[in-house]
Design brief:
Number of helices: 13
Largest sheet: 6 strands, antiparallel
Strand order of the largest sheet: 20-17-16-14-23-24
Number of strands: 41
Radius of gyration: 30 Å
Structural class: alpha+beta
Oligomer: single chain
Length: about 700
């Protein structure tokens, strides 16, 4: 930067920000610039050129400021010079070298400095009064490499994964069939850092009181909570608009997105108009990008059979009819096939050191928290120990992984009764991507003690006590229920009577998209006397939230079970039965309500995800700046000819933006290969994503990790 001034006397004429050197030491070299990007609590170096050498009593005085109405009282402004007081609490500067007209200096910000865009200016102390001269702007981020920073993370492998990795994997599907989906976080792509800072500036917290808001940006608790509100659009024209009705007109289906970059660019270029549409993994993917970009170690976590407890009674109450079909108008709670949120790593100065570490943050707009759709940060340790009273949103997160799943059979006379179903259903296979590899790590043990253990039930009871504290008058708290009835808290801990039969659905063939489904309901008599069982079967296409879209099967059977006999009822669902109503989630819910001789009842459920096929091969070594051929094998899953298929390709460091390739007409069940070139721009492990898009069947996605060598 060249600087000049009409004033006489000494002045800074040029500054070298040493972006390459500082970028390497601060782990910020991947940000594209143009400003210098550094991390707090760590020294960075500048070279100043003066119009003449400094004399003995002259020294350079620096001012850094961020946000409007910057002030030293708010810690949004600092004025400092060489040889000032102790390091740590204030900004400091050390002169490293002086040669003629150039001075090399090293500046260190405090490890709890406000993050964001700073303006730096200087003046030289001398007898002549001088005004400050602007040197330029730089960006200061959180620093997981600095032991004094609240976001400090001790493992270099984890910092590489949770701060610097610009791609990842999000786990979706159902508990018994977990699928990996690639996601391009792209936190180092053009303009993304600028957009992440503007997300903070668009927050109502900033719009209402900008100076106070900026002064709180030293605190990862404050920043992450603000981001969790701003990633959804519910209160604040935030980034992504949610849609769970299965209709995506006027926008993009949540399943079409394969990364955060296109979403963030669209929001920014569209003047902060919310981007249509997202569901939980989209909100989590975008929030992971923003928090990693700002320097907070963050990962994406999937919870299978995730409770959405609307009334904070730690039970998901599902009302069904005699065919096991969900009664939508009575059922306010829900159990989603999976739900995706984030965890970020930082200290909890507000709660104490035992709650440091991973914190749950959830940008999906499910319930309001202090009047705003946001969730967290909630300490994972607090969730495991049942300390649901601690900030923020502990009860909601605890319920997501621990609530009891209670089924109520609703009779036509508007009475109801509890029906036996598995209480262990909720909060299964809590998953995240492994550090340094594509494998899935099960982290359920971080959230709760082993299912059925004494400790697990103790924690559950502790959470119930904290949630339903006895009122001052001594009366027990009542919870309002659907249909206007009240439920005593003691009722929550009493299981339904276990029937004398067992039942489960079994797939006879893998469930493949475009094919008939073949399965059986297996019933077993647990007694030594014969029993008659009436079975009401139903099936519906569903969204991943288990919300039914359309009924595709309803039939009844009567079965005689001899003493301790097992029997199978075969079930076939033809492709023609489900093809019109299958959603992009590719999911079907089967239910069997079984009525046994002595008035016992059993509800058996199975969630099916239809399978598809795509493979990706890289033909040859991948090197920066050298084109390499990629071959994608696709299959038409249908028993009919399809046209108008397109292959969408994306990958940070592998190609600019998205590539769109037309796929030739595919005959019924035909396999075809599509080839294209990519020219990598960055070395290291890079994720390439492909998405086969067709108007005739839901998207078929795949990804591959390509190890790119540096240019020779």
């Amino acid at each position: 930067t060249s600087l000049s001034s009409p004033c006489s006397g000494i002045r800074v004429t040029e500054v070298d920000w040493l972006s390459r050197k500082n970028g390497a030491t601060h782990h910020t070299q991947e940000y594209p610039g143009p400003e210098l990007v550094v991390r707090r609590g760590q020294a960075f170096t500048l070279v100043l050129e003066l119009n003449r050498p400094l004399e003995d009593r002259e020294t350079v005085i620096f001012t850094v400021e961020t946000g409007p109405q910057a002030s030293e009282d708010r810690h949004t402004k600092a004025v400092f010079q060489v040889l000032e007081p102790e390091v740590g609490k204030n900004w400091t500067v050390v002169e490293e070298a002086q040669m003629e007209n150039t001075v090399t200096i090293s500046i260190t910000s405090p490890p709890n400095a406000v993050i964001g865009r700073y303006l730096m200016s200087t003046r030289v102390s001398s007898r002549r009064k001088q005004s400050d001269r602007k040197l330029g702007e730089f960006i200061l981020l959180f620093n997981p490499w600095c032991p004094e920073d609240d976001v400090f993370l001790d493992s270099e492998e984890e910092r590489q994964e949770y701060v610097l990795n610009d791609s990842g994997i999000i786990f979706r599907g159902v508990e018994k069939h977990i699928r990996a989906q690639g996601w391009n976080y792209g936190q180092f792509e053009e303009d993304i850092l600028n957009i992440c800072l503007s997300i903070l500036d668009r927050s109502p917290l900033h719009q209402n009181d900008p100076a106070t808001d900026v002064s709180h940006r030293h605190d990862p608790i404050y920043v992450s909570r603000a981001i969790s509100a701003m990633v959804n659009s519910n209160n604040d024209r935030g980034v992504v608009q949610g849609q769970w009705q299965g209709k995506y007109g006027g926008g993009t289906s949540p399943l079409h997105w394969s990364g955060s970059v296109a979403i963030l660019h669209k929001w920014f270029k569209g003047r902060f108009k919310p981007v249509k549409y997202g569901q939980c993994w989209v909100f989590a993917g975008v929030m992971c990008t923003v928090l990693r970009c700002l320097g907070i170690a963050t990962r994406v976590v999937s919870n299978f059979n995730s409770a959405h407890d609307t009334d904070r009674n730690l039970s998901v109450d599902k009302y069904v009819d005699s065919f096991g079909r969900t009664l939508e108008d009575l059922t306010e709670d829900s159990m989603w096939n999976f739900h995706v949120w984030n965890e970020s790593w930082f200290a909890r100065q507000d709660l104490g050191p035992s709650y440091n570490g991973w914190q749950v943050l959830d940008a999906t707009p499910q319930e309001e928290s202090e009047g705003v759709f946001r969730c967290g940060p909630a300490s994972v340790t607090a969730i495991r120990e049942g300390d649901v009273h601690l900030a923020h949103d502990g009860p909601f997160v605890f319920a997501e992984v621990n609530a009891d799943y209670i089924t109520w059979l609703w009779h036509e006379d508007e009475s109801w009764e509890r029906v036996y179903s598995d209480t262990k259903k909720i909060g299964r296979c809590i998953s995240t991507k492994a550090v340094g590899s594509d494998s899935r790590v099960d982290i359920t043990g971080l959230y709760k003690y082993p299912e059925g253990s004494r400790k697990e039930r103790q924690v559950y009871r502790k959470a119930v006590r904290k949630l339903f504290s006895v009122e001052a008058s001594g009366r027990r708290t009542r919870i309002r229920r659907a249909g206007g009835r009240g439920l005593w808290r003691e009722d929550l801990l009493e299981p339904a009577a276990k029937p004398n039969i067992t039942g489960k659905f079994k797939m006879l063939e893998p469930p493949r998209l475009g094919h008939d489904l073949s399965l059986a309901l297996c019933l077993a008599n647990l007694t030594s006397r014969a029993q008659k069982v009436r079975v009401n079967l139903s099936a519906a296409t569903i969204l991943y939230t288990r919300r039914p879209v359309a009924e595709i099967l309803r039939k009844s059977h009567s079965v005689w079970l001899g003493p301790e006999e097992e029997k199978q009822i075969p079930i076939t669902i033809s492709y023609s039965q489900y093809k019109e109503d299958l959603t992009e989630d590719k999911k079907i819910l089967l239910a069997a309500m079984c009525f046994v001789t002595k008035g016992e009842k059993l509800l058996v459920e199975k969630d099916i995800t239809l399978e598809d096929f795509i493979t990706i091969k890289v033909l040859g070594p991948a090197v920066v700046g050298v084109a390499v051929v990629v071959k994608v094998m696709v299959v038409n899953p249908l028993l009919e000819k399809v046209e108008d298929c397109v292959l969408m390709v994306e990958g940070s460091g592998l190609l600019q933006g998205q590539l769109s390739i037309d796929v030739p007409t595919l005959e019924p069940q035909e396999r075809a290969s599509v080839q294209f070139n990519i020219t990598p721009t960055k070395s290291g492990p890079r994720q390439l994503q492909v998405d086969l898009v067709s108007p005739h069947f839901p998207d078929i996605k795949g990804f591959v990790i390509i190890h790119v060598a540096a240019a020779k």
